[in-house]
Structure prediction request, 342 residues.
Amino acid sequence: MSQFDFIKEIARYGLENDREKLLDALNELVKYSKNTKKLNFALQLQSIIKETIRIPQSPSIVKAGSPIHHQQIDDKELSDLIIEKVTSDYRLSNLVSSEKTKEQLNYFLQEHNSIEMLRKFDLPISNKILLHGPSGCGKTLASYVIAGELKKMMVVVNLGAVVSAKLGETSKNIAKIFRAATAEDCIIFIDEFDSLGKVRDYSQDHGEMKRVVNTILQLFDYLPQTSLLIAATNQVDMIDDALLRRFDININFDLPTEEQIKQLIDLTLKNGQFKFDKKISSTKVIKEAVGLSYYSVQKTLITAMKRSMFLQGGKHIPLTSQINTEIWKSLLIEEKAALRKN
Ligand SMILES: Nc1ncnc2c1ncn2[C@@H]1O[C@H](COP(=O)(O)OP(=O)(O)OP(=O)(O)O)[C@@H](O)[C@H]1O
Ligand SMILES: [Mg+2]
Prediction:
């Protein structure tokens, strides 16, 4: 059967309201997509099927206080706490980093690709990883790389929202997220992990912080070995020591060095379609970029690429384009000045 045959079947059963056959056809499509290496699509479809199965067929009228009603409230609350569910095509080659960081990530991925072997010898699997370092240096990107390399769905949780929106219920919320994510074999990505520290500032109840930390400690300890947890922070010193110790791997993301800036430029210049107008001065410009984050370097470079193209004028679309080094340099200087002000 081809993809189109599946679509035709799905359309027919959907329009005929034949839920059972529709589900069969959808599950077949998941299998077919996995076999034809369209893994991300298969994961997304699988998750949609699972979610709809959980939700009752006619959600319009439910009895208040009934189990279905509670389930619906639970589902609604859970989706408020989760920012997004993503699949990813990012690979290690999309991330520029130090050799050490790359090696750590590589080992981590290797472990998860060799779970069977490690299990056979009763070796523990590292499954809790902390990414830390300044803003714009690749923590979120690294989490996408892990999801992409391992071909897993990732649930992105913003701890900032969990903590501030429902203070007092933080522990319950965190437990709920963990349960849902492990049930679906998703990677849990907790961004802004340092916002746990805020509980201390917001709450009048001094026991609250302890409760939250204890819940997280327990959840960490009981996390199944095949489940993966990634946390990210740019304020690692805000995190409780007991929590820090629970991570199996600690990866630092730093501001780029000159060499790393060059690698980022190569990555951004897209197959040589763009070139600098002056070779020598561009190295000088790279020196100007040192001190900025990967994000700032890339952002200014992309702006320079666009502005240089506009400057060259003409209405025809060029095959290749030159980057005006002076434009990039002034953008870098501007960016640095803006950051100094903040
Ligand atoms: N190490 C890197 N290699 C390649 N690109 C990078 C790197 N770091 C950042 N970038 C670029 O900058 C963008 C933003 O980076 P990212 O979101 O990963 O930063 P972050 O460390 O999570 O920052 P924050 O602490 O503000 O959340 C990325 O999507 C990517 O385009
Ligand atoms: Mg981030």
Remarks:
- Residues 1-58 form one domain.
- The mean pLDDT is 84.
